Amino acid sequence: MKILVTGGAGFIASHISDAYIEKGHKVIIVDNLSTGSKENLNPKAKFYCMDIRDKKLADVFDNEKPDIVNHHAAQISVPISAKDPIFDAEVNILGAINVLQNSVKYGVKKVIFSSTGGAIYGDAKEYPTTENYVPKPVSPYAIAKFSVEKYLHYYNHQFGLKYLVLRYANVYGPRQIPHGEAGVVSIFIENILQNKISNLYAYPENPDGMIRDYVFVGDVVKSNLIGLEKGDNELVNIGTNNETSTGELYHQIAELMNSNIQPKKLGARPGDIHKSCLDISRARNILNWHPQTSLKDGIKQTIEYFYNKYHRKDK
User: Directed axis angle between helix 217-226 and helix 11-22, to 10°?
Assistant: First the structure.
């Protein structure tokens, strides 16, 4: 199978690209390297350095004729989306429409889309939150992701383009960049490695920080593998159904790294939601997927990656 992966030089999609190649699929990667890294590129993948908004994206589709599109390219930061909602919409909405237009034109069979379960529901009344809960996004980032979900429904209705929406909880793991809330695990690890104090953002009523559902990237990859064959025209939460406060997360990381550095507590940022935890019953039923990596084991693997990364820098 030939699979086009947008954002394939980035944190999550590079792992997905590796897994697709390991399973014998041919992978084409489109990434503008704004947040992705050439180091993450699998040498067996064909790479186009290109923005998903570029009109020349049509040439990639024309040349490659992919069977599947895995769309992960995005502006990934909630705070940045709040500061610059126009840029966020240009990348996350208009860029996605460009991908979908070309998918229809060049006969793509299915689009797998990385959405957000960590932000799209807002401060949900239903908790843990199922896919049936009507999203109430409170950031431009989440609004854009929700918009693309609606566009996918339209392209399926109008053109028969199959899709699978994967609403991720907070994904962490090796290759994660220390950037925005999405990269909080890597931010904490890098700060401790550099003997820096980390910021802990919190609302007054929740002084230990935001509550989130943290899912390991290796488990996320498996959902994208299963999605090649299952879950047509479905919307599925990908998380753990376990809640962890930011303070608890930090202290787990600090303990594993033998650090006594205490975080600095600050107020909530624009777009921050109080708590998020995903019900994953549908993932079990439709995809036969469930997370297999505990938070402690996932953090250990991530710490090991960053230790090795810094060790390479020192040489």
Answer: 50
Question: Residue 179 belongs to what domain range?
Answer: 172-212+242-277+293-314
Residue 229 domain flag: yes
Q: List phi, psi (to 5°) of 136.
A: -130, 70
Overall pTM > 0.90: yes
57-83 residue pLDDT tens: 999 999 999 999 999 999 998 889 999
- 43 and 189 inside one domain: no
Q: What is the CA radius of gyration of the chain?
A: 19
Would you call 201 a catalytic residue per the annotation?
no
**Annotated active-site residue in 20, 141, 214, 250:** 141
Alpha carbons 295 and 286: distance in angstroms, whole number: 24
pLDDT per residue as tens digits for the range 150-184 = 999 999 999 999 999 999 999 999 999 886 556 89
Write out the two tokens for 241.
């159904």
Q: Give the number of other Cβ atoms within 10 Å of residue 297's Cβ.
A: 12
